[in-house]
Amino acid sequence: MTLLRFVYLFLLISFSASAQKDYRLWLQYDKITNLQVTQEYKMGIKGIVSLGNSETSTISLRELESGLTNMLGNKIEIKSKIEGENNLIIGSQSSLSSDIQKNILSDFKRINNEGFIIKSISLKNKKQIVITGKNDVGVLYGVYNFLRLLQTNKSISNLNVIDSPKINLRVLNHWDNLDRTVERGYAGFSLWNWQKLPDFIDQRYIDYARANASVGINGTVLTNVNANALILTPQYLEKVEALANVFRPYGIKVYLTARFSAPIEIGGLKTADPKDAAVANWWKEKAKEIYKRIPDFGGFLVKANSEGQPGPQNYGRDHVDGANMLADAVAPFGGVIMWRAFVYSEHDANDRAKQAYAEFQPYDGKFKANVIVQVKNGAIDFQPREPFHPLFGAMPKTPIMMEFQVTQEYLGFSTHLVYLPKLFQEVLESDTYQKGKGSTVAKVVDGSLTNTKLTGIAGVSNIGNDLNWTGHPFAQANWYGFGRLAWNPYLDAEVIADEWLRCTFSNNKNFINPIKNMMIKSREAVINYMTPLGLHHIMDTGHHYGPGPWVSDLSRPEWNPTYYHKADKNGIGFDRSKTGTNATAQYATQVEKIFDNLETCPEQDLLWFHHVSWDYKLKNGQTLWSGMALKYQEGVNQVQEMQNSWNKAEKYIDAERFKEVQMLLQIQYKEAKWWRDACLLYFQQYSGKELPVGVEKPTETLEYFKSLKFPFAPGN
Ligand code: GCV
């Protein structure tokens, strides 16, 4: 091969347009192909007038300029003052002239500090569009929203969009280690290049901030909850400061995880006892040092006395003592403490699902005002389906923050296509009955149920340094969807999928409709082929990839899948009803009754709450064994349908992303069959029954499946 040809091929591979498409996420700004729509936009946008002069205003202007140029195919004039009609006027409330303000004064009363207004107005009898907010970050959110209207080909002829985020803290939790490995990360290494920071600012930091701001995410916890105290040393704080400076104009605050034993490890103290005056003082001084560098530092996220992490209990203190001591340290600077409730212990003989509630619920009302308790969506650990965590609705005097997992630790890593907003929506819509019917988890999280002012939602990030950010092109939708639901927890997952597809791939309805359908069904498919009917935590241990229902030899009982499914000759499932561990009693009476009673317990949660016989009759008349086997088969069939839908999408999108997803779906299909065969062969030992008609026969033995090992599975 000649050198020239080699260079040419290399360039072709490295800079192929499609690879850049993968990188550009939902901010593709593709040229609009519908002529009528393009015509409307060209008529409606003749110029841009930017009234602000902050860094954020410049970002808004540049984003509009590049977005419009790409989508419309020609440059839009940037004007220094309002001349003529059909201008886009962007600026915060204080920058608007009084005659513009007059048009929208009452709208400002309807938005909060981060909200925005996009409005068609008449100014001196000339039509204009104004994008505004109370400050420049609100304007930036408005700009992204406006661009999304164009990306999704909506009309802009008579605009009146008034919107504000419903939740204050909308943060990503990066489980990123300082050596750049990512715990439960399946998209390469950490974005944060600590070695080159603070002097080298990778373009990815900026693009990460853009993507987050475009969906309204306003915070990022840079480090793993299994924390390393080194991040709090000056050497690292300098690097954190550099990142904070990049993110600030995008409205994004930086947070860190605080290792509870840091005063010993990096502070030279003999103890980390929260009641020790020197310890409290150490944290106060540390907070002062951080805020001197980063005046808008968000605060700390803490995993304490959980899975071996140090915490106040090491000193005979409790979570309230620990959280409040840290809260005092950051309070003078407006910081918050996000204290996690993910606790369980191998020394507690209680059902693991009950332990977090048992430990935290009695603390209701005891935390300082700037503490928010971060609770996972379910009581075990980010399973394909879990009933909502009983702590939602059980601590009315405490701000409670939702923790979702965007990375797919238990849902096929970044290999399986699973559209998570369906899962998020299901949890948010669950009724806690805290204040009677309609007390949904969403209302707990957005504070509207109890008039709570400090509100938050966290997503464990699925982002890494893979070219496409998330490993699977469709996992980008989970990042996007998390952000959209963090902004408004009442949005519909289907609407979000529609938006995302249009912004990421195409507006062609022949593409959108079947692919949206595929996304919506993907979440139920993964449940069916992994953990149907309320089964949970039967993934292989440690890395959690693939099936491992047989694992029973780990030192901690609650780390063994057998602990969760309890399959025996008599049946299967975890009895958490009154006749079992009585975990159902942790819910409000109305919910407790529903879950406790076999008649009313939703079948999707059956084996979560009940141990039932293999002959138990399901609502459709099938026995539990047959029904379960058929669910596993259904999951496999659903993946096959996903493949069929995708294969028809080829002509609508770029070849590279098409091929990527096609290959990934093929692996998913193979692995769905693996799940089905391994689980059914294993459970069949107990049911002693034949597979029902309609379920394909396994092609390997149980011993074969048990022998599979994955020593280098990522994220572990
Ligand atoms: C960061 C699960 C995961 C752990 C994770 C933990 C947590 O147990 O497997 O990797 O640790 O949750 O949320 O703290």
Automatic annotation (TrEMBL):
It is an enzyme of class 3 (hydrolase). Residues 150-469 form the Glycosyl hydrolase family 67 catalytic domain. Keywords: Carbohydrate metabolism, Glycosidase, Hydrolase, Polysaccharide degradation, Signal, Xylan degradation. Residues 1-19 form the signal peptide. Residues 25-146 form the Alpha glucuronidase N-terminal domain. It catalyses: Hydrolysis of (1->2)-alpha-D-(4-O-methyl)glucuronosyl links in the main chain of hardwood xylans. Its EC number is 3.2.1.131. SUPFAM superfamilies: (Trans)glycosidases (SSF51445), beta-N-acetylhexosaminidase-like domain (SSF55545). Residues 470-694 form the Glycosyl hydrolase family 67 C-terminal domain. The keyword Thylakoid does not apply. It holds the Pfam family Glyco_hydro_67M. Gene3D superfamilies: Alpha-glucuronidase, C-terminal domain, Chitobiase/beta-hexosaminidase domain 2-like, Glycosidases. Homodimer. Belongs to the glycosyl hydrolase 67 family. PANTHER family: ALPHA-GLUCURONIDASE A. This is Xylan alpha-1,2-glucuronidase.
